[in-house]
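Entry 14. Structure prediction run on the chain below.
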Amino acid sequence: MTADRSDSGQDDTARRALDAAAPLPSRGIGMSGKLLILTVLFVMVAEVLIYVPSVANFRNSWLEDRISAGRTAALVVEAAPGGNVADTLVRELLESTGVHAVALKTGPARRLLAATEDLPAIDLTVDMRSQTLLSAISETFSTMAAPPGRTMRVMGNARRDGEFVEIVMDETPLKQAMAVFSRNILILSLLISGITAALVYLALHLMFVRPLRRLTDAMIAFRENPEDLNRVVQPTGRKDELGIAEFELQSMQNSLHDMLAQKSRLAALGLAVSKINHDLRNLLASAQLFSDRLANVPDPTVQRFAPKMIQALDRAIAFCQSTLSYGRAQEAPPQRRATPLATLVAELRDTVGLGPEARIALVDAIEAEMTVDADGDHLFRVLLNLVRNAHQALESRAPNDPSRDQIRIVGRREGAVSVIEVSDTGPGMPEQARAHLFEAFQGSTRPGGTGLGLAIASELVRAHGGTIALAEGTVGATFRITIPDRPIDLSQARKSQRRKRA
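Output returned:
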């Protein structure tokens, strides 16, 4: 078992190297920080989308107020007797409305109702009657980027259809009012975005970020010591996707913990077997020397059992030399040949000690001269494991009675397939053992059992291309083995026949 110990050491070394090669990534901006940044950013984008039409609407409202003031001034001028208005009153009207001139179109004529003495040149004309949202937004940005002192003419609807009012005014007061409005919007946007971001961040942090951080912390803690069950994540009982993730993570961590525990057990078993194997092989070698001497004793009983004892010792020494090949390496490929099943069963009867005087009966029902295309030693080990398990199950209800406690071996051919059934009249297999029946260290139902017998039998049968399964609905436990014959190479068969004829 030196190889087992070295494999275990290599596994530990590889594990430490893997841990060293895969350090935890350095923490950058956490999900909480990213969530806060994105929330503020998206709220600000929303505020910008709100601000653009809002400031355009503010500009239109401001201009409509000026047109209304100009319309009022036009009414005052029209109401004067004979249309004669004192110059001082005209100046006061224009100053109160904040415009340089007011004109009114009635019918085909256009009249200048009031104007300042130093009327400036017009730089821009805005017609409020045919304005759309896009044109209003475009003109709003034009106003915000306009140079100081620009003069604009604004036209709007009058009291009656077909009439309109024109005013000439400086654009600077409008630009200043838009700047104040924009500043107020910015302050309000920052306040709203801050409150909204805080609320969204708090809600998402409590619902998602904190549970995710708990999961990552649990994974990091489990990674540091996966053999500690206290580090397995405990589900919180959530019914959403995070709850499913917690449950699946717990299942995965429990499975990994069990796998590591089983691997540690296998390593400890390998070390123990290597020590036992060393001493047991020496003891068997000594017993083999004694058996060789017994072969020379002329007693008929000794002559009958000595060859079988020698064969059993040889087989045991071979098993020791293989050092429990199951689990560490594959079994040797089967050396298949036509093996008489009745001969194996007779040898099995003597090996297990189920002779005529035994309290547990071994009954065989094998077709006459039935042969199995299999490795004789492998098939003997399979049957030995099954019969020993059945024998131990029947011994548990001692005192035994041969008429009640029986082990039965049935053999028959079904075409090119050999079918062997090993059954007993014992208590049967418990339900909890059926799920992992052919897995190492899992299928044992006897206190102190290792659960290796069925696992070894399954591996040997599968090496022959066959199957082994527990039959349902039988008294006790019945294992059915099927081993198909090897395909016949017709060309090789013809060649061999020609050689025989020659």
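Residues 156 and 429 are 98 Å apart (CA to CA).
Filed with the rest of this week's runs.
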